[in-house]
Design goal:
By secondary structure, this protein is mainly α. The protein is built from 2 helices and no strands. It has a domain of 33 residues.
Length: 52
């Protein structure tokens, strides 16, 4: 159900802005590498369980 009487330039009109920590985590090469390894390990474990 759409919101009625939404006036422009109110706080609810704008999307939430990510924090500085969130921006850092999105652009950190080290954090992306860690997440890459963790996700690949989960996929490998899933494949080993299904084929074994």
């Amino acid at each position: 159900m759409p919101v009625k009487n939404r006036e422009p330039y109110q706080q609810a009109y704008y999307p939430p802005v990510p924090t500085a920590f969130t921006c850092y985590m999105r652009t950190s090469i080290i954090w992306q590498l860690v997440r890459f390894v963790v996700i690949n390990f989960k996929i490998l474990k899933l494949m080993m369980n299904s084929h074994g």
